[in-house]
Amino acid sequence: MILKITLIILTLLASFLGGISNQFTDWTWYELLNKSELNPPNYVFGLVWPILYLLMATVSFLNSSNIYRLYIIQLILNSAWSWIFFVLQLTAVAFLDILILIALNVGILVKLFVTKSLISLILYLPYVLWLSFAAFLNLSILILN
Q: Mind listing the pLDDT tens digit of every residue in the chain (145 residues)?
């Protein structure tokens, strides 16, 4: 039970750490970037991420002993991405971060599939799909700027 609670706390901490990067972001820099036409308005990110963190916390709670190693590493990379991309403005490094993040989370999906945790797999899939979309947006910024 301690591991389950710890993963929920770490998920909330990752959300918080990623979120406070907004306080240190030069939004003028971001607004001036050329972006994909598929880039959603900024408010969409604020709507999507809380839902994804809730799903992540739920899956980590239900599957803690099976996924905790990959899950903790991916939380670190998840939190780091906002700082790398927005604060440090290292878009290429952020893209590398998100590619590793996707690979780790595909590993989690595989573990959920192998253990026949179908509900958890379905709950976790939106996060991996959103990461993939975010990687596309990150790559678009790399190419267009």
A: 999 999 999 999 999 999 999 999 999 999 999 999 999 999 999 999 999 999 999 999 999 999 999 999 999 999 999 999 999 999 999 999 999 999 999 999 999 999 999 999 999 999 999 999 999 999 999 999 9
Q: What is the largest CA-CA distance in the chain?
A: 47
Please compute, for residue 28, the number of CA atoms within 13 A of its CA located in the half-sphere on the CB side: 0
CA atoms 120, 62, 104, 97: torsion sign: positive
- Beta-carbon contacts of 141 under 8 Å, excluding residues fewer than 6 positions away, are 33, 34, 35, 36, 91
Q: What is the CATH number of domain 2-144?
A: 1.20.1260
Cβ atoms of 124 and 11 within 8 Å: the answer is no
Q: Where are the domains of the chain?
A: 2-144
Q: What pLDDT shows up at residue 104? A: 98
Asked if residue 33 lies in contact with residue 141, where contact means CB atoms within 8 angstroms, the answer is: yes
Phi-psi region of 116 (alpha: psi -120 to 50; beta: other; left: phi over 0): left
Q: What is the Rg, in whole angstroms, of the alpha carbon atoms belonging to the chain? A: 15
